[in-house]
UniProtKB/TrEMBL annotation:
The modification 4-aspartylphosphate is found at residue 52. PROSITE patterns: RESPONSE_REGULATORY. Signal peptide: none annotated. Residues 3-117 form the Response regulatory domain. This is Response regulatory domain-containing protein. It comes from Geobacter hydrogenophilus. CDD domains: REC. Keywords: Phosphoprotein, Two-component regulatory system.
Amino acid sequence: MKYILIVDDDRDCLGMFRNFLVQEGFSVQCATSGEEALSILKDSSIHLMITDLNMPKMNGIELAKKALILLPFMPIFLHSGSISPELPLLAEVVGISRVLAKPVNPCAMLEAIRNELREN
């Protein structure tokens, strides 16, 4: 069983991602903030994290930097409704595996997750 952590301050988005991924056979934990996500990462075995970029207090880039200190080889997907031209390069420098544009295509996301988890 593969464990995925989804981080987003939008509870509707969390629920949608969670339901979809559980139906696809993943175990899913959700967090509504970067702080909550880091707490989960310290206490759980997570294989992949999907985080929103724009969240209060700690954005997805900051979260990814801290998460990769805890789990250096964990793949991280970043999703955002506003992808600037420099975001993919910044994400790559930080160690984020993939940047997804909102609205996220569920089938494309699922394929990316499966490919990433197969490689790790």
